[in-house]
């Protein structure tokens, strides 16, 4: 079947595009549309309807063309061609109209959207802006506030909202009929094309500065939303053609820039992760148990509750169970405030606490989140196996223990798996999914499906100390401590990482999380006979400095205040460990630490602990606040190249990383 077919109904031409699966506007489809409209121009029907076959209207550009040289006709040329026709064209939108697809619809003279359709400009999430007239036409169609919202956030709106702001003319239950009806009406009274219209509303002079502050805050370092805002401002001030050229130039500059390259990398890595997640035999989890209601158990229970699961949480005593309930109640309350759920009571009605494992007799899955202690965890699973159904998935949230040793106590390990959530579990998106050798494909697929349902990103991790994320974290901290030993000030290192784009530097982060966790883990390893040298943070813990909770860690804190102040006591405690007075610029500090992370990440891939570099990058993005627009440590190292990585490390990178660099 050809990409675009044309039929006629009582003087109305109906063009149907058919480019499965999502009618992406790749070059062949753009060419076919241009050709079909050119042929139609010669026929001059009364009016035309543009629609798509399959599950959606044009869902946007073709991702396979990302990063390729553009081939004409561009989407903006097709949109202009439609606009210039002597008869009206109505876009009939079902499924979704996104990015270039929506821009094409804005070239049309009218738009009808099926109830349930979604519309949006996701460009900024890929580091670009709409470059086919989407910004400039929005300025002539929408009130300024709505245009800013739509274009700078990348959000999707539904058909009703689209009608409310004026993006579509009608919401429809019988799409083709309604589109034909509108086409007929417009033929009688041909509307002025959007590009030739006046602005529906001209913003006041203080409008733009106020918007900029908001947009900057939400952009989290991504340049595109601010560029979109700038072009939008110009679109309200300048003539259409001048603003359109500015839009195109800005689009091309962003498209060819580093941020867009990084965000495309993340886009493809996430697609890859979603593919990995699809497996045979996945079951839907409706009822979940959680054992342990501390920081993690309460967070995991909340994450389940917020997505509609029934949850039972077991603790060691009635008192501990009540404390856990309060933690969950508080977290659910916070979720209500953020608008994630409406009614805390409705959510809490699905939650119960217990001290007896009998309560798990009919749960689909139980996650263990008790103390990080092998014996305690093994006891929990031994008891669980007798309390649950034979098909209940049993998961451990261990951070550092070997899941094989935990699962060892089970008779049936095919249903056992590691599900490593990150703190706070109701917020952080990452879950490392750690199968043991005996884990069945169905159990694994079920775990991925559950994580997806939670709105989180599941990344397969192999078994090693710290799995993917905490193993890199350990390396990162050690590298940061090494810089301190060389004489780089703690505050300078944290500032360097913030400048790089992280919300926090490594030392601030440790003060927040507590220095004692890693310390206790090292102590346990020492007790088990391993030779673990003291880190600088161990020196601080031994002096009672465990972080914010003790009033001081790497920094001093004043009562009731989280502002870090450089600490004289720390300087004194560490004086004998500092060997030099290194003078490094902040960018080199950050690049050194990121290169060390990348080196560990590359080794993790080489060992098969992670599937590929993109998956490692996703772990850093979703679990550790690595800036999305940097793409992740491995992507970043690749872009820096071998020579630069060698320069910042002060040595040749290890073979696994060297192999990824050019
Ligand atoms: P926590 O100390 O806050 O909570 C542990 C809870 O388990 C306590 O409330 C305790 O009463 C309960 N508990 C102990 N034995 C139990 C038993 N036999 N039955 C029922 N409940 C029992 O510890 P946290 O931080 O929540 O850690 C739990 C697990 O999650 C550990 O394996 C830890 O390594 C892991 N984890 C921790 C992260 C963190 O950032 N804190 C992040 C990811 C994983």
TrEMBL record:
Q: Record's superkingdom?
A: Bacteria
UniProt xrefs under CDD domains: crotonase-like
* Any GO molecular function: enoyl-CoA hydratase activity
Q: Which reaction does it catalyse?
A: a (3S)-3-hydroxyacyl-CoA + NAD(+) = a 3-oxoacyl-CoA + NADH + H(+)
Q: What is its main location?
A: other
Pathway named in the protein's UniProt entry: Lipid metabolism; fatty acid beta-oxidation
Instruction: Give start and end of each 3-hydroxyacyl-CoA dehydrogenase NAD binding domain.
Output: 288-461
Identify the residues that the record assigns to the 3-hydroxyacyl-CoA dehydrogenase C-terminal domain, covering every copy: 466-557
The cellular location(s) given in this protein's UniProt record come to: Peroxisome
Q: Subunit composition?
A: Monomer.
Kindly provide the name given to this protein in its UniProt entry.
Short chain enoyl-CoA hydratase /3-hydroxyacyl-CoA dehydrogenase
| Highest classification ranks of the organism | Bacteria, Pseudomonadati, Pseudomonadota, Alphaproteobacteria, Rhodobacterales
């Amino acid at each position: 079947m050809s990409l675009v077919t044309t039929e006629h109904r009582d003087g109305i031409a109906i063009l149907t595009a058919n480019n499965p699966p999502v009618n992406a506007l790749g070059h062949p489809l753009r060419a076919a549309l241009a050709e079909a409209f050119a042929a139609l121009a010669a026929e001059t029907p009364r009016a035309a309807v543009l629609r798509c076959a399959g599950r959606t209207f044009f869902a946007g550009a073709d991702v396979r063309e990302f990063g390729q040289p553009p081939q004409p006709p561009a989407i903006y040329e097709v949109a202009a061609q439609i606009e210039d026709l002597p008869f009206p064209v109505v876009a009939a939108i079902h499924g979704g109209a996104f990015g270039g697809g929506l821009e094409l619809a804005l070239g049309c003279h009218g738009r009808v959207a099926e109830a349930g359709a979604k519309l949006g400009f996701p460009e900024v999430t890929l580091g670009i802006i709409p470059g086919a007239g989407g910004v400039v036409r929005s300025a002539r169609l929408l009130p300024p506030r709505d245009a800013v919202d739509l274009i700078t956030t990348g959000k999707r709106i539904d058909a009703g909202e689209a009608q409310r702001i004026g993006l579509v003319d009608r919401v429809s239950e019988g799409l083709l009929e309604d589109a034909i009806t509108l086409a007929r009406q417009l033929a009688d009274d041909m509307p002025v094309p959007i590009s030739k219209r006046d602005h529906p509303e001209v913003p006041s002079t203080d409008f733009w500065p106020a918007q900029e502050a908001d947009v900057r805050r939400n952009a989290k370092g991504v340049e595109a939303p601010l560029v979109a805002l700038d072009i939008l401002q110009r679109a309200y001030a300048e003539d259409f053609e001048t603003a359109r050229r500015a839009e195109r130039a800005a689009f091309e500059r962003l498209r060819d820039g580093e941020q867009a390259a990084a965000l495309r990398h993340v886009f493809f890595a996430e697609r890859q992760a979603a593919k990995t997640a699809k497996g045979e035999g996945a079951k839907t989890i409706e009822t979940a148990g959680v054992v342990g209601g501390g920081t993690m158990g309460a967070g995991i229970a909340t994450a389940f509750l917020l997505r509609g699961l029934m949850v039972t949480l077991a603790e060691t005593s009635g008192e501990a169970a009540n404390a856990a309930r309060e933690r969950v109640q508080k977290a659910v309350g916070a979720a209500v405030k953020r608008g994630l759920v409406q009614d805390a009571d409705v959510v809490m009605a699905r939650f119960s606490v217990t001290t007896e494992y009998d309560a798990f007799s009919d749960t689909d899955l139980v996650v263990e989140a008790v103390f990080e202690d092998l014996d305690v965890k093994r006891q929990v699973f031994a008891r669980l196996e007798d309390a649950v159904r034979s098909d209940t998935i049993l998961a451990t949230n261990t951070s550092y223990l070997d899941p094989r040793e935990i699962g060892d106590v089970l008779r049936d390990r095919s249903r056992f798996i590691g599900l490593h959530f990150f703190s706070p579990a109701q917020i952080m998106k990452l879950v490392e999914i750690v199968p043991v050798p005996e884990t069945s494909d169905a159990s694994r697929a079920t775990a991925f499906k559950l994580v997806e349902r939670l709105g989180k990103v599941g990344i397969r991790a192999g078994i090693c100390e710290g799995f993917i994320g905490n193993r890199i974290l350990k390396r990162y901290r050690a590298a940061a401590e090494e810089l301190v030993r060389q004489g780089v000030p703690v505050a300078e290192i944290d500032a360097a990482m913030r400048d790089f784009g992280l919300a926090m530097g490594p030392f601030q982060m440790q003060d927040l999380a507590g220095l004692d966790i890693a310390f206790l883990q090292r102590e346990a390893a020492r007790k088990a006979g391993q030779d673990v040298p003291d880190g600088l943070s161990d020196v601080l813990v031994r002096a009672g400095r465990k972080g914010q909770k003790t009033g001081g860690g790497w920094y001093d804190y004043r009562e009731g205040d989280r502002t870090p102040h450089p600490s004289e006591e720390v300087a004194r405690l560490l004086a004998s460990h500092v060997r030099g007075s290194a003078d490094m610029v902040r960018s080199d500090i950050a690049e050194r630490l990121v290169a060390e992370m990348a080196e560990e990440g590359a080794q993790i891939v080489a060992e098969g602990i992670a599937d590929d570099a993109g998956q490692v990058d996703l772990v850093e993005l979703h679990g550790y606040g690595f800036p999305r627009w940097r793409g992740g440590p491995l992507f970043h190292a690749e872009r820096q190249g071998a020579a630069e990585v060698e320069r910042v490390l002060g040595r040749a990178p290890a073979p696994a990383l060297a192999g990824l660099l050019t």
